[in-house]
Amino acid sequence: MERSKVLISAEEIEKQHEYMRKVKDLLGSGERYALVRTYGCQQNEADSERLAGMLCEMGYTITEDEQLADLILVNTCAVREHAELKALSITGQFKHLKEKKKGLLIGICGCMVSQEHRKEDIKHKYPYVDFLFGTAMLYRMPEILYTKLKKDKRQFFLDDNSGNIAEGLPVYRMNSFKAWVSIMYGCNNFCSYCVVPYVRGRERSREVDAILKEVRELADAGYKEITLLGQNVNSYGKDLEEPISFAQLLARICQIEGDFTVRFMTSHPKDATKELIDVMADNKKIARAFHLPLQSGSNRVLARMNRKYTREKYLELVDYMRQKMPDIALTTDIIVAFPGESDEDFEDTLDMLKRVEYDNIYSFIYSKRKGTPAAEYPDQIDPAVASERFARMIACQQEISARKNKDYTGEILQVLVEGYSKTDDQKLTGRTEKNRLVHFEGPEELIGQYAAVRITRSETYALFGELAQ
Ligand code: 5AD
Ligand code: SF4
């Protein structure tokens, strides 16, 4: 798509700011609260921060309390059926809130409702949903909300989902020391199982200067960790008028002054370059952690997934990474029971886990997605077989993760402290540069800061320790 059609004009963004002012005037001066519930990936989290930013500009205060909310916005995910069912079920529960609180506004947006059939479901089966908009309509939320209020009529807005870039929207950051920065949107890869290209449109990169400015502002504001987001960050810059590689962008980000760590996700193995690995190795600001989704260890399945790499090419990349950065932490995504996956194919995936020895894996049972090629493949796997393979996969990785965690005992690790532990409110919790979860006792003031923690004990998914100072 032409660049001029992708970039939303400054006039259009100003028009939306005008709608934000109009909503504010319309609703008057009293206190009002908005709740934004987010499902799915970090891109959705980042989108929700823009939505919340716009709601703040309309005079709403952001809350987590659904009883208090005057407006609830559900930002949905479509990547697996489970995520869709969760979002639908929570939206169903909000019906009762609306019965109790007249005037409560309910909106739904994001990937799930960017599919025509889901939009129709919501329209007909969820009459208490006041407004709906797809991912390409995010920047028009103020206009949609204003129209709903003014006309008192439900609003449903989907376009062709081809996508756009909207700069200059306000943002409400949910965290004061970790921030997301989207560097590109959409995906062109059409992996045969994946719905993302259909709901988030084609790949499009933000301008270099816009990204550098955002990172500079975050660094100046004291953010400790900045995660660059894109469905496939390795394609960054190819569509710009002056093309630039992701590795070059990273190198420029690392020149920004400040005490912050850079992370990025996600990288497609077919586009991960040695140049990128070299830039990582040369820059201490970039976390020694790499998320490289494998999806399957079988070349036959990889081809049917349309992944465009082989296990050999993948292993070559891993070897180069470890040669340059022996201590790098590797994580991956795996899909179990893709249509036609034989016992032998599955064993190939287990074999890759044992060879690579990931620090952690995110594994999912294949979920059929309407409109994707794999949904039409005749050889879908029996759910009992899928569950059995999934359990074996988890067991295989647990052994590796537990062994790797054990190696940390006695070491002193730098931990970015995130808050109190969810399972033990006497303890603080944080993550290391390599994304290891660490629990330890310490003062509240450490939240948002780095702490040196001596590791005394480990479990499969967590480390335990004490302050080293
Ligand atoms: N079924 C199961 N897992 C999927 N993913 C994407 N689409 C599907 C699907 N249809 C997984 C992939 C991807 C991660 C974000 O979600 O592993 O990397
Ligand atoms: Fe989906 Fe593949 Fe694009 Fe990732 S690269 S979003 S798995 S189509």
Give a topology summary:
Elements lengths: L2 H4 L3 H18 L5 E6 L3 H16 L3 E2 L8 E6 L4 H20 L4 E6 L5 H10 L5 E3 L7 H11 L3 E3 L20 E5 L1 E2 L10 H5 L3 E2 L2 H13 L4 E5 L16 H9 L6 E5 L8 H9 L6 E3 L7 H6 L6 H14 L4 E8 L6 H14 L3 E6 L17 H24 L5 E9 L7 E5 L4 E5 L8 E9 L4 E5 L2
Parallel strand pairs: 1-2, 1-3, 3-4, 4-5, 5-6, 7-10, 10-11, 12-13, 13-14, 17-19
Antiparallel strand pairs: 8-9, 15-16, 15-18, 16-17, 18-19
Helix pairs in contact: 2-6, 9-10, 10-12, 13-14
The structure holds 5'-deoxyadenosine and iron/sulfur cluster.
Iron/sulfur cluster (SF4) binds next to α7.
In brief, what are we looking at here?
The protein is of the alpha/beta class and 469 residues long. The chain is built from 14 helices and 19 strands.
How would you describe this structure to a colleague?
This protein has 469 residues and is of the alpha/beta class. The chain folds into three domains: 3-157, Methylthiotransferase, N-terminal domain (Rossmann fold), CATH 3.40.50.12160; 178-406, tm_1862 like domain (pyruvate-formate lyase- activating enzyme), CATH 3.80.30.20; 412-467, OB fold (Dihydrolipoamide Acetyltransferase, E2P) (Beta Barrel). It has 14 helices and 19 strands. α2 runs parallel beside α6, α10 (274-282) packs parallel to α12 (311-324) and α13 (343-356) runs parallel beside α14. The chain starts with a helix and ends with a strand. Bound molecules: 5'-deoxyadenosine and iron/sulfur cluster.
